[in-house]
Each structure stands twice: as structure tokens, then as C-alpha cells.
Input
Amino acid sequence: DPEMSRGLGDVYKEAHTSIADAAVYVIDGEIELHFDAEKFKLDKGEILMFKKDKEHKVHALKDSKFLLIKI
Output
């Protein structure tokens, strides 16, 4: 299921990699994407693209919905 819904404080999987390059689009709420030591905060309407070999995890800062797009 490409659309993900998370509650405040939820983490979508522990750190992992993707099988394809991907983009995360925030439909509602606020999430934080962690890539090693870097963190990127995304609000509703924002998108972030990343390479498949980048280990990452998603942390919900608010109740959130986001769309994962494999490229």
C-alpha cells in the first residue's frame, strides 16, 4: 500500500533501504525523514526524493498521511 498513515510519534519501520529510488509526498501532517545523521522535516504538500541505497526511517511528528512513490 503506497499511502501510509501514522500517528504522532510513530516510526515507519526501523532504518531500512528501498528497492527503488523513491519520493515521499506528505498528504497531511508533518514527518521527519532520517538519513544517517541528517534529518529532513516535511510538512503537508512537501516532497523529498532519495536514492534506493540510502538507509532511512520515517518519524511522524504529528498524525500524518504520506504517499511513497517508487521511481
